[in-house]
Q: What sequence folds into this?
């Protein structure tokens, strides 16, 4: 059940970021759902590998290079998912930052990160 909630929150985050008009767009709810899955898969496979390989560069840039990797992973997901579009690297960079912030806020609100529902 928690996996389903995380997936839905990720798709909602993709949709919210697309509504902010920073160069990221989705054509439909289905595209947002598929994009959430692909972004998760790309980040958990290729993204982890790239973060390990570029760790020295990440240390030199005080972690900022991970934002570049996240932007590249977002662009890759957009290339794979029909109906999910990213207009260039700057849009991917801003979109990756916004996506992580929106995701964190949604997970805090809905309590998806700790396995317990939010109290309120």
A:
């Amino acid at each position: 059940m928690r996996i389903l909630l995380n997936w839905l929150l990720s798709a909602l985050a993709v949709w919210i970021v697309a509504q902010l008009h920073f160069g990221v767009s989705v054509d439909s709810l289905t595209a947002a759902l598929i994009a959430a899955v692909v972004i998760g898969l790309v980040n958990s496979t290729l993204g982890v590998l790239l973060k390990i390989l570029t760790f020295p560069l990440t240390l030199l840039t005080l972690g900022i290079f991970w934002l570049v990797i996240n932007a590249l992973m977002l662009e890759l997901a957009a290339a794979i998912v029909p109906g999910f579009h990213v207009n260039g690297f700057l849009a991917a960079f801003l979109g990756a930052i916004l996506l992580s912030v929106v995701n964190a806020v949604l997970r805090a609100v809905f309590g998806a990160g700790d396995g317990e529902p939010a109290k309120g």
Q: What stands out?
A: The two ends are 21 Å apart (CA to CA).
